[in-house]
Amino acid sequence: MERVSFEDRNCSIARALDVLGDWWNVLIIREALWGTRKFDDFQRHLGMSKSILSKRLKLLMEHDILEKRSQGSSVDYQLTTKGREVQAIIVSLLQWGDRWYPQAEGPPVVLVNRHTRAPLAPLRFQDEQGNPLELADIGLSAGPGANEETRERIRQIQCLHAVD
C-alpha cells in the first residue's frame, strides 16, 4: 500500500503529519528529547527493527528534525531546533494520554521542573498578550498562505460560529 503524501495540501497540520503521523517518528523524537543519541540505544529503548529505525532516522534527517554528528568513531543523532520544538506536541500528547488513557497505577512518567522537582502544569492556550483562552475562545482567520479553498472553508466555519 503506497503512503499518501500531504505535502501539497493547504493545511499546516496535514503537512506536519507527513513527518509526525507515524508513531515510530514521534517515539524516536521523544527518545531524542530524553537524551537518546546512539542508534543502538534508540533500538533498545524502542524495541524496533534496525531497518525500520534506519528508515525513520533518515526521514527525520531529511526533514531537518534530527541531524547526524560524528563523535570520534561513533555517530550521534541530535535534535535540530526544528526537532526540539516538537517538545510541546510530545508534552501535550503525554498529558492527554495520562488524562484519558491512564494506567491504574498512575502515570509512568511525570514531567517535572529540573530545579524545583515540581510537576508541570497542563499545557494551556493563551494569546500573544498572555491572556488565557479556552477552546471556545479560539477562532480561525485566513493566513497569508491560505488559498481560495481554505479561505472559503474558514468563511463557512466563521458563519457556523456566528450563530452560536
UniProtKB/TrEMBL annotation:
InterPro entries: ArsR-like_HTH, HTH_ArsR_DNA-bd_dom, HTH_HxlR, WH-like_DNA-bd_sf, WH_DNA-bd_sf. Gene3D superfamilies: Winged helix-like DNA-binding domain superfamily/Winged helix DNA-binding domain. GO terms for molecular function: DNA binding; DNA-binding transcription factor activity. Residues 11-105 form the HTH hxlR-type domain. Keywords: DNA-binding, Transcription, Transcription regulation. PANTHER family: TRANSCRIPTIONAL REGULATOR, MARR FAMILY, TRANSCRIPTIONAL REGULATORY PROTEIN. This is DNA-binding HxlR family transcriptional regulator. It comes from Pseudomonas fluvialis.
